[in-house]
């Protein structure tokens, strides 16, 4: 029997979870091509929703968050400061939670404009750290707390600060919220594939900007 925190509905299909994730990534990359220096963060958030609708999104299960510049330090539940303009040498991330074919996508990643090497390194480090932690799950079957302990150690070694206020969460066929799965970082078992989202958010040592990457563990 599955752990109660890993319950899913009768319509749940792992292949449809893959589809929802893949379609969500198509949307994110379309957004990165559409967002240009000079646009406001609020404009990018509206554009993101238009792109999702164009790709056949049925609904959203969590609001779209596009964060520019210093707002990349914000967690999901925090509001952006002001309505910043995307700069020529800037950093931003996209975090979306759409529903496709009755299943929840939840992906996000970080992009840069221009050629600032430090910001580019931060964006790349979030992706690298995500890949390393996911590989640890695949190879060693680590529990949720062990995954985030590993992430914190690796982030420190890489020269970044991991934000441990976010520790992943559940997804599934919509709506996953009825199962009360809690945070991935608090799940003591070995997470099964297709229903847990690994979130990685890091910041530079000065705390002036950060990077984000997330995807479902499959």
Number of strands: 8
CATH topology tier name: Creatine Amidinohydrolase
Q: Given the C-alpha coordinates, what overall shape results?
A: globular
| DSSP helix fraction | 25-40%
CATH architecture: Alpha-Beta Complex
Structural class: alpha+beta
Highest CATH level, the class: Alpha Beta
Return the string of H and E elements: HHEEEEHHEEEE
Number of helices: 4
The largest β sheet comes out as: 4 strands, antiparallel
Return residue spans where pLDDT drops below 50 for at least 5 consecutive residues: none
**Number of separate structural domains:** 1
Description:
- By secondary structure, the protein is an alpha+beta fold.
- It has a single domain (4-216), classed as Creatine Amidinohydrolase (Alpha-Beta Complex), CATH 3.90.230.10.
- The protein is built from 4 helices and 8 strands, in the order H-H-E-E-E-E-H-H-E-E-E-E.
- It has helices at residues 14-34, 41-54, 117-140, 144-158, and strands at 59-68, 91-100, 103-104, 107-112, 161-162, 169-170, 196-203, 210-216.
- Helix 1 (14-34) packs across helix 2.
- The chain is globular, with a radius of gyration of 17 Å.
- It starts with 13 loop residues before the first helix and ends with a strand.
